[in-house]
Amino acid sequence: MEDFAGLAVSLAFSVGASLCGGWWTLRRWSQARHLLDTPTSKIRSAAQGYVELYGVLEELPEVQVHGPLTGKPCVWWRFRIEEYQSSDNKKRWRPVESGTSEAWLRLNDGTGECLIDPRGAEVRPVVREAWEGNLRHPRGPARTGFLGWLSSGKRYRYVEERLHVGQPLYAIGDFRTLGGGRQGLDLEAAQRAVIREWKGDFAGLLQRFDNDGNGHLDETEWNRVRLAAQLEAEDRHRQVSAQPAMNRMARPGESRPFILANAGEDEIARGLYWQAAAGAVLCLCGALATAWLLGIRHF
């Protein structure tokens, strides 16, 4: 019975490794193909949808961003703090804190500007600093007295990655232009959205359109609601269209990659192919281990 239980556990690991390796291979291969098959666009003439851009990072004057561990000015950061632990002959670095900036980025390619929402992106910055210290937070005040004595034996490792103004940036994701008269109007969808908004304040809706005061809207009154909602949707669209065009990039709705990197497209794709190859090796090893384990019991 124990042999069967051990075999079952081994099979679970080998099958899991094979499946995870296969999934990782397909995912990374697909991402590499998306990068290489998507042509580079200029911001001024980019189509709406999934696009690839090259440009230079610029500062957003209204947003002041600094690295949380170093205090250095930047436009985006990611950090990790680990504590060194040693117990029962086991030594390891245990993550204790991490974080990622959500500040928007501004990309300029010489033809226009695009604001980028980095949430959900795979960000690959070239600037990476790593060091060690004995404070829980490297910018915190030095501990003195009894607390300083208690913490003197602790070791921490800090990692901070940053994007800076003036750096080149490769970006691939979902591109949309708001304002400037470029977006179309789905009148029925916009009308329904206005009606849903008005229904949120049903008392106000009755006050505006319940002419006979009976506490509900009949068909004639609902027709007036629909007409008013249509006119409101058209007016809102005109107001948005009159605003200056604003380009934005964000995470795609599908499973397509959303990548922001200081490296070029070919370098990123090459790394993805290597990761796909590693996944294929893991998948093959898992499959061979599964076949060998099954052969033991002659299933």
TrEMBL record:
The chain crosses the membrane at residues 272-294. It is found in: Membrane. Residues 86-181 form the E3 Ubiquitin ligase MUL1-like domain. One of its GO terms (molecular function) is ubiquitin protein ligase activity. The keyword Membrane applies. Keywords: Membrane, Metal-binding, Transferase, Transmembrane, Transmembrane helix, Ubl conjugation pathway, Zinc, Zinc-finger. This is RING-type E3 ubiquitin transferase. The lineage of its organism: Bacteria, Pseudomonadati, Pseudomonadota, Gammaproteobacteria, Pseudomonadales.
